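Quick question, first post here. What does this chain look like in 3D?
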Amino acid sequence: MAAGEDERRIVIRGLTGLDELNEAVRLQKEIWGFADIELLPLRLFVVAQKVGGQTLGAFDGDRMVGFLLAIPGLKQGSMYLHSHMMGVLPEYRNLRIGRRLKLAQREEALSRGIRLVEWTFDPLELKNAFFNIERLGAIVRRYVRNQYGTTTSPLHGGLPTDRCVAEWHLESPRVTAILEGRAPERGPVLERIEIPADIAEIRASKPEKAAAIQAQASDQFEEYFQRGLAVIGFENRSDSGVYLFGKWDFK
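> Answer (accepted):
Ran it through. Tokens below.
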């Protein structure tokens, strides 16, 4: 699909009723190819609505083409949101729907006085990393090995589900600057991790090589985080995606 009118046609709103929640459950299989046993169940979507979470959808007319699910958590006495899942149908992925879902999430969270949203992402998914870090302004200070175990999704390629934990400090100077189209202030880059730009092809055709790349990156992430560094930027190069590490001195 092209941008322009198609992009403006998409409506972002909260999900209502069991039919819409069931459609979000179904979309998981269409987007990720999960087996039924790995789908987040309807019950979780219902509970999220009742306990202060978020269930948002993107609609093209009556058709749901994307969704977001977040659940509430408590950290150091303050409520935050764990954004557990967000997905958009493949044919709608060039219409900035993911960004609009996240901005709607931010607006709703701030309306309730919530200032932190966290989520996990696969560090080998370079487009996602760029989106999270450079388009939304998230930082990363934690790394979890094999968080969800090995899944049936072909997108995971049978690799351990290692994950970065994104921290989205909704009112931080960094986030505010990025969402306003300004370059955020940031200190010097002290370390880098490079992931080959063709990692998706490597994961599909050379799983042993992909596993070695993942293992090396995992060791580097853990080493740099143990030294008190954070991911403060991400660069797209012709041959690689590069995580940039530095000190994170303010929220």
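The mean pLDDT is 93.
The CA atoms of residues 141 and 226 lie 9 Å apart.
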